[in-house]
Amino acid sequence: MEALIQLMESNKLDKISMSQIATIAEVNRSTIYRFFEDKYDIIESREDQFFEELRQARKNFSSSDLNPKLIKIKDPLYGALIVIKSNRHFLKIVLGKNGEASFPWRFKNFMLQETSEYEQLIEKIMSGVKTELVNIYHISAIFGIIQFWISDDALTIEEVYNFFKIYSQKLLS
């Protein structure tokens, strides 16, 4: 998978061949085909791995992973940000100019599914407005912040975390 990501740093996905992937990975093409149907299957598998890491961070986040100065409670948001930060290189590639076109849609759809539990709260806060519109608006804003963060190495995880926490508090007040 990493060989494909490496090639995507300088090539569009549709211009990359399985032979190039095999060469970078230092394996035979037949070895790759044993595990993947094609390059799209490879990138989808890597995307699925990322989404599973996010899902697990949300479910199993432990306060021992946090910066003790920041917060001392269980917080799946911080866990998700840790996953995003640890996948920064991958995300820069798939969200960049050579990225996979369906990934932004898959990421937003993932966020919509994972935050569906907040629909009743959104309905209460934004009565009279279609919940789907509010959800899409917020998910798009969150996605935009994530895109900005992964492209700006100067922003720390704490700054992004604090932004989302303050934004959420203001939204709910």
Give an account of the 3D structure.
The N and C termini lie far apart (44 Å). Helix 1 crosses helix 2 (18-25) and helix 4 (39-60) runs antiparallel to helix 5. The protein has a single domain, classed as Tetracycline Repressor, domain 2 (Orthogonal Bundle), CATH 1.10.357. The chain has helices at residues 2-8, 18-25, 29-35, 39-60, 76-86, 88-94, 103-114, 119-125, 131-151, 157-172. By secondary structure, the protein is mainly alpha-helical. It is elongated and about 60 Å long. Residues 1-54 form the HTH tetR-type domain. InterPro entries: Homeodomain-like_sf, HTH-type_Tx_Regulator, HTH_TetR. Keywords: DNA-binding.
Number of domains: 1
Q: Structural class of the helix and strand makeup?
A: mainly alpha
Global geometry? elongated
CATH superfamily (homologous) name: Tetracycline Repressor, domain 2
Mean model confidence by pLDDT: 87
Low-confidence stretches: 62-74
Keywords: DNA-binding
Pfam families: TetR_N
InterPro entries: Homeodomain-like_sf, HTH-type_Tx_Regulator, HTH_TetR
Protein name: TetR/AcrR family transcriptional regulator
